[in-house]
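Structural prep section.
Before we set up the soaks we want a predicted structure of the protein with nicotinamide-adenine-dinucleotide in place, mainly to decide which crystallisation condition to try first. Input record follows.
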Amino acid sequence: MEEKIKICICGGGNGAHVMAGLAAAHARTEVQVLTLYQDEAVVWTEKMKQGDLIIARNNPDRTVEEIKAKPAVITKDAGQATQNADVIIFCVPAFAHKQYFEAIAPYVKENMSIIGLPGQPGFEFQCLDILKDKARSCTILDYESLPWACRLAEFGRKVDLLATKDSLIGSLISGKSQPKHDPVELLQLIFGEHPILIKGNNYLETVLMVKGFAHPALMYGHWMNWDGKPVEEKPLFYQGLTEFAASVLWDVSQEIVNTAKAISKARPEVTMENVEHFESWIIRNYRHTIQDPTNLYTAMKTNTAYGGLVHPMQEISPGKYIPDFHHRYLEEDVPYGLAVTKGVAQIVGVATPCTDKVITWAQGHLGKEFLVGSELKGKEFKDTRAPQAFGLNTLDDLLSLM
Ligand code: NAD
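Run finished without errors. Recording the tokens verbatim:
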């Protein structure tokens, strides 16, 4: 019998459960989960004694299919989790990546594939910074998003796979590696038909394609003039959108598109064609669920796929809510999102007045200082994954990683 391909999956949340379950269910692959957070490894291991991990997959025809499988190992020990693994997949929010890179560093071997699913902006910078030369003998893959919308129903036992994306773009830095198994083919084998994995042009394109910037932009648009008083219900995140919040999102997106254009203008050989404005992206991707595609504002407000989603809030007393400014919409999507696109814009000399306003507002709520005026030189800018935080200060520096 053919030996199974061992895959190490980093993380213990929604996406890690789906990835672990799908890969464990596949005949060709065996799963070793690395979860460093609190006692997740112990709890998940105990849960596995009660039965299989169940993925409840919602199919487009509205049927729900149950996929059952068991990871071979769930551990906090990076040596055990990476043992004989050819592939390491990060399926964990970006704020946790650093500790995973540091944990796996001693065990990374040449020709391994290291996959960010999603990588989120700055994944490559952090990977190369922590793994150093070892990273150069690995394949680094970075996907624009998670392939699924998913939520844990019961930690360690059941996860609801709510929807699967049609396609997913990922970038690849091959370095000197010669992987034993093509990582893209392997992922496609595990995922099945969807999402269709598409090869992007380069990693900078993936950095500028990520859509997480919508979260801080919309939070700023909604809460920038908040008077600090609790509200009586959780506002709808998308359907409750104001024209002002939509205009903030539009402007931030345009600044990112301008950055991509500036890169290709400076270096015509660097293709950035997959960097698209949020307006055309949402209208294209959600064409079946948007009732009024006139513009970004109407598209967001009438997208039934976004129905019912609310702002992240904390209930401070029964029926009284305040915004949760420590939700991943800011904690993840500013230092590992907007600050990175801002850093790239700064390198290529693109002005980003709207992005600057959003970061300046958000950093106040996060209790950090990334930006001073319009420059990434605040006391904590090194806590971001902006290229400057890794000593990458010129376009040549950025292109040298490709
Ligand atoms: P998640 O919110 O389920 O992650 C929670 C897990 O992260 C925890 O179980 C733990 O393992 C780890 N974690 C949490 N806090 C930590 C800390 N302080 N230190 C170390 N580890 C900690 O994440 P997810 O939903 O699986 O999302 C993974 C990535 O995919 C994120 O970048 C997210 O933005 C993106 N994403 C998710 C979805 C989705 O539907 N879940 C959709 C699109 C994109």
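Observations: The radius of gyration is 21 Å.
Flagged for discussion at group meeting.
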